[in-house]
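Office hours follow-up: a student asked to see two folded examples consecutively, so here they are.
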Amino acid sequence: MKQGDIIIYGCVIIGAGVGLTLDNSFPGVLIGLGAGYLLKTFFRKEE
């Protein structure tokens, strides 16, 4: 598994957890997914 994938999965799980505390898990997952992709591109190594 690549490091970028781990960042995305972690953000999705955190987003789902925050969404469950607010009684809406699906929007939390989507926000976590978007944040994961942003973090993945931010921390991507220059080749």
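And the second, which I mentioned at the end of office hours:
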Amino acid sequence: MQASYGNLLNNLPLDSSAEVFELLHERAGLKIERIVSNGQASPPGFWYDNPQEEWVLLLSGSAGLTLEGAREEHVMQPGTWLHIPAHCRHRIEWTDANQPTIWLAVHHEITSL
């Protein structure tokens, strides 16, 4: 197997008009990606409802997420992480429009211990 490497803060997309999802690693039941946002948000009324669990870490920028049923918005700053259970509906309310918001997202199957 070949080793792979990179830097999550380098080689950012030049076009900031759309969010960019970059697959970093994938295998059965696991997907790791870098997401770069530049002021994007979920469309009005749209909710993510992922069949896999998701763990996200914010590396730069800032963002606000709403989890369905939560009383308040979850504000994320660099270093903030969040675990989102499978089928926990959520949406991105806003991302920083003045600098790239860089996320590390780990999607994984539900496992029992």
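Two things to take away from it. The mean pLDDT is 94. The CA atoms of residues 53 and 107 lie 6 Å apart.
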